[in-house]
TrEMBL record:
The protein, known as: Neurogenin 2
Species annotation: Cyanoderma ruficeps (rufous-capped babbler)
Coiled coil: none
Protein keywords: Developmental protein, Differentiation, DNA-binding, Neurogenesis, Nucleus, Transcription, Transcription regulation
Start and end residues of each stretch annotated as Disordered: 18-106, 165-230
Gene Ontology CC terms: nucleus
Length: 230
DNA sequence: TAGGCCATCTGGTCCT
DNA sequence: AGGACCAGATGGCCTA
């Protein structure tokens, strides 16, 4: 299958994502940024700290106009019943926690996407600006690691062979991630062996001799990895 | 217009 | 109790 030239996003999108500004389609009904939601949350917290305002009392014919605006309520007895107010407070607290959890979840997904972008950066793509989808990135990375592992293994075997022939090298133009393994902020696998996490180097998706697996970017799903391996 | 991809919200579960 | 993680639902955007 051919490489899908996905040019949805200009290269700058990665930067935006890393800055947490990359959400192209925020829900219209929701705050457009985390900050706004933060504000909303602040508001909620503020409201929580203060006494929950009584529901606007509708004047009989008054279209929601509040009577005695600006005047303090005389006493508690005039407000909503205690049960109602506590229920309302509980609702507000619940809502506030939900908003916080939403924020955390959003950040978590942004971090995940940033990691995915870092992974994309070390994977060779053709053409250069083609952006792999998430699933493609993971599958490609899986196969890519496997292929590099095979390359190293074959190179080692060749060195030990009778003729000492030259070892296979990664395809030209491939920004070999191996070069960055020695260090760097985004080094994908500092010291961990590709064999780690029970990932068999034999083949990520079947027989090692199967040409589908390398550089088969769209190879059908590799065998499921153990959870928390990726 | 259908389908793919994505971001976000949400409630549940597990962990610290 | 609060945070992390997860999976399902939903809606927007884009492309064939």
């Amino acid at each position: 299958m051919l490489v899908k030239a996905e040019v949805l996003a200009p290269p700058a999108e990665d930067e935006l994502l890393l800055l947490g500004l990359g959400s192209p389609a925020p829900s219209p009904s929701l705050p457009s940024s985390a900050e706004e939601e933060e504000e909303e949350e602040e508001e909620e917290e503020e409201e929580l700290r203060a006494a929950p305002p009584a529901r606007p009392v509708e004047a009989p014919g008054g279209r929601g106009l509040r009577r005695a605006e600006g005047k303090r309520r005389p006493g508690r007895s005039r407000g909503a019943p205690r049960a109602a107010r506590t229920a309302e407070t509980a609702q507000r607290i619940k809502r506030s926690r939900r908003l916080k959890a939403n924020n955390r979840e959003r950040n978590r997904m942004h971090n995940l996407n940033a990691a995915l972008d870092a992974l994309r950066d070390v994977l060779p793509t053709f053409p250069e600006d083609a952006k792999l989808t998430k699933i493609e990135t993971l599958r490609f990375a899986h196969n890519y690691i496997w292929a590099l592992t095979e390359t190293l293994r074959l190179a080692g075997a060749a060195r030990l062979g009778p003729d000492g022939a030259a070892a296979a090298v990664p395809a030209e133009g491939s920004p070999s991630p191996a070069s960055s393994w020695s260090g760097g902020a985004a080094s994908p696998a500092p010291s961990a062996s590709p064999y780690a996490c029970t990932l068999s180097p034999a083949s990520p998706a079947g027989s090692a001799s199967d040409p589908e697996h390398w550089p088969g970017r769209f190879a059908p799903g590799p065998p499921p990895l153990p959870r928390r391996c990726l």
